[in-house]
Amino acid sequence: MLRVGVITASDRGYRGEREDLSGKVIEEMVKEINGVVEEYKVLPDDLEVIKKELINMSDKGLDLILTTGGTGLSPRDNTPEATLAVVEKLVPGIPEAMRMASLAKTPHAMLSRAVAGIRGKTLIVNLPGSPKGVRENLSVILPALPHAVEVLRGEVKDCGK
Q: How confident is the model at residue 156 (pLDDT cuts 50, 70, 90)?
């Protein structure tokens, strides 16, 4: 079982002006890899608030934190900066794979600033803010996530066999 945290970064969602459909897509999709959402937060697009919650969730020992929203070019898009401030190592292949797959569908994919990295034994991945974007991007990386978590847990000694 993968212990998952979901953070939706959305000022409007936080204020209750918009339902968080993207977080629900994540919750539905992680079931495919035996994931259970143990923590779920809708937060404002505030750098310090997002950083604090990423630290909180990872320090609780969650295997995976998936964020949605805040990865674009808007002045209030702070999720990548919050992630970069708390991770110890980057995992660039994850957002590279997402952008590559998305570019086949839209040139706007190159505007994503999503990042992925490791804090302790927790993998943190930024996803887009729309339900469609979440579904498309998460479907690309979902098959690799269980192995990534196994490696972080120390359950895989030799990845080549």
A: confident
On whether the CB atoms of residues 9 and 76 are closer than 8 A, the answer is no
Residue 2 exposed, middle or buried by CB count within 10 Å (0-12, 13-18, 19+): buried
User: What does the alpha-carbon distance between residue 102 and residue 139 come to, in Å, rounded to a whole number?
Assistant: 11
Q: What is the mean pLDDT of residues 82-101?
A: 98
CB 38 within 8 A of CB 4: yes
Amino acid making up residue 19:
E
Q: Looking at the whole model, is its pTM more than 0.90?
A: yes
Nearest to 68 by CA among 108, 107, 124, 122: 124
Torsion angle (degrees, nearest 10) of CA 114, 58, 31, 155: 110
* Cβ atoms of 114 and 71 closer than 8 Å: yes
Average pLDDT over residues 36-46: 98
In tens, the pLDDT along 50-77 reads 999 999 999 999 999 999 999 999 999 9
CA dihedral 73, 82, 23, 116 (to 10 degrees): 90
List, in sequence order, the alpha helices (H) in 17-158.
21-30, 47-59, 79-86, 93-103, 131-141, 145-153
